[in-house]
């Protein structure tokens, strides 16, 4: 029993519970200082030689000579493992480049040589070891674009990709050919540079720093860092931590640094369903065929981003067994190749051979539009099919025409689009057809003067616009959602006419009173007259009708009628890749690399020598806080005596209560009592009562 009458075990358990936090912090500080911290600072190669860190090459040689003289004289016979450690340290620290890399950045990439030698000579004497252990792999300066200052790295309008390397690194020597291929892939989209770590001031700007102040490269050399366009400080520096392959590096740079879209691969089974069917009907389909399966080069992604409103991009992995399928589909003979799929019925445009930035841009400029364009909210004014705009010929033209075929997406519409495209091609001089030139002269002249435009309209997506021009009992077969199996494309021609110049319009507006301005503010500036075609689908008949309608519009005095045309429904202006493709985890930095990154960050702080003292300080502070708070509760009472004092107070209270009750019991009655218990009422006589 303890002095206070309580069991000793109970008192000790109470104290352990009260001071649990300080004890835990103290235990952690001891474990960190004695177990974790020594493993984070293993003996250096200088320690193996018995000299201080950063000793000169001469001091290294002297230390090795002292040890080897003892071995030669037989004074000491080292174990083979000890000899290998000493010899490895000597060879590493007497090479100026290796020593520099080890001293400044802790780089020791030949350590695997030492581990292999330990296994090879485990049972042999040290005298049987073949020397030297390390082969010198130094190579010359092969920098593509050297950077010697931070200003040289930041004064670039394009994103910058830098390779940090060492002339004495075997890994860097093997990576050079891959680096040259990466530079070729990024040509035109990025500035490429190389920094040799001998440029210490520049190299330390791009290196990471441990809590101890040691500069290091997390994955050794070579190391890749990138500076986005406009980056002026190291705060926006991006480090590549994936596999050092052409595909992984270019994909990381294109998506993470430049912000370019990722272009997906499709098989022959998924190409039509997942790519061509899901791409907008107004877009040209650009399909790249690759033998390697590598992801799209940045210049291809740049083109996809620039032309996203006009074209959709996809990749296909070429297989020889699929030759007949691709030949019958697109006339593709081999890879690499690119094919442009445009209007229905139009032969695809095929290019065989390797691509670079300039070649691809030329191809895109010539093939980014359909031959028969779609009438859309973003193209209506450019095509000259907008009563609020002007003709393609310019603002001076007062009358112009637009021939439109409208309908729901269907084989019938595709056939009519092909017919109208053929009409346009014939009248533009691209074909020969036995048609009277006089009958088509008005159409030909309008085409040459850019007063005539051909387009097609998605009647389902543009229901109001379509119904405005084709308002009839049968317009539901052409405009709006499909109600039955009937799909009937319709052809119509719109004549636009302005009867005043822009100056006259402005002058007229200033003379109008406010009431007239309110009446006319929603009216289109150009009048519109619509002619609907009800003839056959034969090309000569269509040409005659178009030409006759244009002739009537130019020669006859037709009514000038203005109204308000419904707006075209805008398409999705946000590119598909910007909504989710950027958030897809790149294979170059996948889940495995992300997990490794977290572990490496934790290990960096585990090696911080300040953590042990901080834990000990926390233990002391928590111990003092708990002791002080408990002492202030009972200043004159020891913690072990609190229960005893409480019991004594309770006993004193009970004794006083018993004494008080006893005194009350023996106390004589008072005359002030309301009814004394032994009181007697004396009888009164009659005389007295009188």
UniProtKB/TrEMBL annotation:
Gene3D superfamilies per record: DnaJ domain
InterPro entries given in the database record: DnaJ_C16_autophagy_reg, DnaJ_domain, J_dom_sf, Thioredoxin-like_sf
Comp. bias regions, Basic residues: 653-666
Region of interest (Disordered), residue spans: 631-690
Polar residues bias locations: 631-644
Record domain J: where: 44-106
UniProt name for this protein: J domain-containing protein
């Amino acid at each position: 029993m303890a002095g206070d009458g309580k069991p000793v075990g109970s008192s000790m358990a109470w104290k352990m519970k009260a001071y649990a936090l300080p004890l835990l912090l103290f235990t952690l500080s001891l474990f960190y200082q004695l177990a974790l911290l020594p493993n984070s600072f293993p003996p250096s190669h200088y320690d193996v030689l018995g000299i201080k860190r950063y000793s000169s090459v001469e001091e290294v040689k002297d230390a090795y000579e002292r040890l080897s003289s003892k071995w030669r004289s037989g004074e000491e016979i080292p174990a083979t493992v000890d000899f290998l450690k000493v010899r490895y340290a000597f060879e590493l620290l007497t090479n100026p480049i290796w020593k520099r890399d080890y001293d400044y950045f802790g780089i020791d990439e030949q350590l695997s040589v030492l581990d292999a030698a330990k296994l090879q000579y485990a049972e042999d004497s040290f005298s049987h070891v073949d020397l030297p252990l390390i082969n010198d792999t130094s190579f010359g300066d092969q920098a593509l674009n050297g950077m010697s200052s931070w200003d040289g790295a930041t004064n670039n309008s394009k994103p910058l990709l830098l390779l940090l390397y060492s002339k004495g690194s075997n890994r860097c020597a093997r990576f050079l050919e891959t680096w040259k291929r990466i530079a070729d892939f990024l040509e035109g989209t990025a500035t490429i540079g190389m920094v040799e770590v001998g440029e210490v001031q520049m190299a330390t700007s791009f290196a990471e720093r441990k809590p101890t102040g040691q500069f290091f490269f997390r994955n050794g050399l070579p190391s890749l860092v990138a500076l986005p366009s406009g980056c002026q400080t190291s705060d926006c520096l991006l480090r590549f931590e994936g596999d050092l392959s052409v595909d992984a590096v270019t994909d990381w740079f294109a998506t993470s640094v430049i912000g370019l879209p990722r272009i997906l691969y499709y098989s022959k089974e998924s190409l039509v369903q997942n790519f061509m069917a899901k791409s907008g009907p107004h877009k040209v389909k650009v399909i790249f065929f690759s033998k390697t399966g590598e992801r799209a080069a940045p210049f291809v992604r740049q083109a996809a981003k620039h032309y996203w409103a006009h074209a959709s991009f996809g990749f296909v992995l070429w297989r020889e067994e699929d030759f007949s399928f691709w030949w019958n589909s697109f006339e593709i003979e081999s890879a690499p190749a690119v094919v442009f799929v445009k209007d229905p019925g139009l032969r695809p445009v095929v290019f065989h051979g390797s691509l670079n930035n300039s070649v691809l841009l030329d191809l895109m400029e010539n093939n980014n539009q359909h031959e028969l364009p779609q009438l859309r909210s973003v193209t209506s004014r450019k095509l000259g099919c907008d009563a609020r705009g002007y003709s393609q010929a310019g603002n001076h033209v007062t009358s112009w025409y637009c021939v439109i075929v409208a309908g729901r997406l269907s084989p019938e519409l595709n056939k009519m689009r092909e017919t109208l495209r053929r009409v346009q091609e014939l009248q533009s001089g691209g074909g020969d057809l036995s048609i009277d030139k006089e009958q088509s002269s008005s159409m030909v002249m309008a085409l040459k003067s850019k007063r005539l435009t051909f387009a097609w309209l998605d009647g389902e997506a543009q229901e109001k616009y379509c119904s405005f021009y084709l308002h009839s009992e049968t317009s539901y077969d052409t405009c709006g959602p499909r109600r039955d199996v009937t799909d009937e494309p319709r052809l119509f021609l719109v004549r636009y006419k302005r009867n005043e110049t822009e100056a006259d319009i402005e002058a007229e507006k200033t003379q109008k009173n406010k009431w007239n301005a309110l009446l006319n503010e929603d009216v289109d500036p150009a009048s519109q007259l619509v002619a609907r075609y009800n003839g056959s689908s034969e090309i000569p008949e269509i040409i005659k009708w178009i030409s006759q309608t244009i002739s009537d519009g130019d020669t006859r005095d037709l009514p000038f009628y203005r109204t308000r045309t419904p707006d075209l429904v805008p398409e999705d202006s946000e590119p598909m890749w910007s909504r989710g493709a950027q958030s897809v985890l790149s294979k170059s930095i996948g889940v495995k690399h992300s997990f490794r990154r977290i572990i490496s960050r934790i290990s960096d702080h585990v090696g911080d020598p300040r953590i042990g003292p901080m834990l000990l300080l926390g233990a002391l502070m928590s111990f003092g806080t708990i002791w002080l708070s408990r002492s202030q509760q009972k200043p004159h009472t020891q913690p072990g005596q609190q229960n005893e004092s409480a019991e004594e107070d309770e006993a004193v209270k009970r004794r006083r209560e018993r004494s008080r009750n006893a005194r009350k019991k023996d106390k004589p009655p008072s005359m002030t009592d309301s009814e004394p218990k032994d009181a007697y009422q004396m009888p009164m006589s009659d005389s007295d009562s009188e």
